[in-house]
Specification:
- GO terms for molecular function: hydrolase activity, acting on ester bonds.
- Residues 162-269 form the BD-FAE-like domain.
- By secondary structure, this protein is of the alpha/beta class.
- The chain folds into two domains: 1-119, 3-Layer(aba) Sandwich (Rossmann fold); 122-384, Rossmann fold, CATH 3.40.50.
- It has ten helices and 13 strands.
- Helix 9 (327-339) links the parallel strand 12 and strand 13.
- Helix 1 (15-32) packs parallel to helix 2 and helix 6 (220-237) crosses helix 8 (256-267).
């Protein structure tokens, strides 16, 4: 793993020397072990200017170097540490070195490269993708820095992302995992990785969505479902590359994640064929959805939802002792689905509470098996 240190001045035009020295390091490593796997990072940006204004040029030349060495048979992977790193919020006071949020972003990028490089038995490839080019729509001017807590929980999300885990043998179906947390926090880590351990071996492509939260969002329900639709579009746009079916993309939500998915599905967003953004031309509508511990939020009555016949086939999971998302609400929701002639299956468990279906150790332990049985009987390619 090479994230090369440097402390030159832009006026010295140091990039050619840095590239020369980086290649020398790689060549020395290969003399020791010709089969060594090199992870070469592009450098994080800095706000200490003009001293470090050469970094964009350096990163471009690092990419050129990696491409050339790859063509020469070197086992090298370029790790883009620059993309998504904002020195204004991701560095300490010196505007150069990463703070806790910046370090987390960097470690996520290293993990993206390390998992396939280390030969994870289930993961062919992993990558983290930003949903939006630049700032997300409607983003406030002043942002609170994203905060991470143990066990993968995160607060203050303003840069939504999609963690993509691809299996060795894809079955064509993609699962977008949408964690809960009341739109104020997100348990993206445990649920995303738990779903990978559960479903990747079956050939599912598993994606973990990190959608916007409040704060900083001023309209978090809308922002979150827009992120959900964007994630569906992004997956569809990569269908050929990932060897998946663009009409077999499902979303699995937990609590607020289920709320977000249902909001998205009710919008029936099929894309705008005249949009300038190619992604916006694609449908943001999932082909099926799993609503676990469906939390209604402020939409307290089923009649507050625009349930329509074009909703995708749905599996609803509920626990009778769930006080946050009562089974009575899910039963009424299933009834509304049936009235609209939407294929729906309701599975009610006696115990487990609001966290009954959460990974990594769901109390309703057999729900993934029930899901597999349901999806096997389901024609998820049916367009609704």
């Amino acid at each position: 793993m090479i994230h090369s240190g440097h402390n030159s001045f832009s006026k010295d035009k140091p990039v050619p020397g840095m590239i020369r020295d980086t290649e020398a390091i790689i060549n020395n490593l290969r003399k020791i072990n010709p089969e060594v796997r090199i992870l070469l990072a592009q450098v994080i940006p800095a706000g200490k200017l003009p001293k470090y204004s050469y970094i964009p040029e350096l990163n471009q030349e690092l990419a050129t170097l990696a491409t050339r060495l790859l063509q020469e048979g070197v086992r090298i992977t370029l790790v883009n540490q620059a993309d998504g790193f904002d020195w204004k919020v991701d560095t300490v006071k010196d505007k150069v070195h990463p703070n806790a949020a910046g370090a987390k972003k960097m470690s996520d990028k290293w993990m993206a490269a390390l998992l396939p490089a280390l030969g994870h038995p289930k993961i062919l490839a992993y990558e983290q993708l930003r949903l939006w080019h630049g700032a997300a729509p409607g983003l406030a001017a002043k942002l609170s820095p994203e905060k991470d807590l143990p066990q993968g929980r995160v607060f203050h999300v303003s840069v939504p992302t999609l963690d993509v885990y691809r299996p060795h043998r894809a079955n064509g179906v993609t699962l977008i995992i949408c964690s809960g947390g009341g739109y104020k926090k997100l348990a993206s880590g445990p649920l995303g990785l738990g779903a990978v351990d559960e479903f990747l071996e079956d050939g599912y492509t598993v994606c973990s969505l990190k959608y916007r939260l409040s704060p900083p969002s001023a309209n978090v329900v809308k922002d979150a479902w827009m992120d959900g639709a964007r994630a569906v579009r992004l997956v569809r746009s990569r269908a050929r590359e990932w060897k998946i079916d663009p009409e077999r993309i499902g979303m699995i939500g937990f609590s607020a994640g289920s709320n977000m998915i249902l909001n998205l599905a009710c919008k029936h967003d099929r894309g705008d064929p005249n949009a300038k953004d190619p992604l916006a031309r694609l449908s943001g509508h999932p082909n099926f959805m799993v609503l676990a511990a469906l939390w209604l939020n402020k939409q307290n009555k089923v009649t507050d939802w625009a349930i329509h016949p074009q909703l995708p086939p749905t599996l609803i999971l509920s626990a009778s002792d769930d006080l946050t998302a009562p089974t009575q609400d899910t039963e009424e929701m299933a009834k509304a689905f049936r009235k609209a002639q939407v294929p729906v299956q309701l599975e009610i468990y006696d115990r487990g509470g609001h966290m009954a279906f959460n990974f990594p150790s769901p109390k309703a332990a057999d729900w993934p098996q029930r899901f597999r049985k349901w999806i096997k009987q389901l024609n998820v390619a049916t367009k609704r």
